[in-house]
Specification:
Length: 87
């Protein structure tokens, strides 16, 4: 009788350990997803800031630098902006 109770207790402990491992795994997965979403949101924000900065720089340089060099700079910044848009 005592042996049956010990076996039953061992089974219950094993099931409890399995449940704990599953809970830890699910919590880790949720944390991972949360961090991914945070990085994605922050990345979009940084990307928008970079686009705005390039646009402002392009506008400022168009007025300040004239001629072929100014045109080349403008083209280069436009290419960079397009790369950011594609990202």
């Amino acid at each position: 009788m005592l042996e049956m109770l010990n076996d039953l207790l061992k089974k219950i402990e094993k099931e409890n350990q399995k449940t704990n491992v599953r809970a830890i795994g699910m919590a880790t997965l949720q944390q991972s997803n949360s961090k991914k979403n945070k990085v994605k949101t922050e990345g979009k924000s940084t990307l928008e800031e970079a686009k705005a900065s390039i646009s402002q720089t392009t506008t400022g340089l168009q007025g300040a630098v004239k001629g072929k060099f100014g045109k080349k700079i403008t083209e280069t910044f436009e290419k960079q902006k397009q790369k950011l848009d594609a990202y």
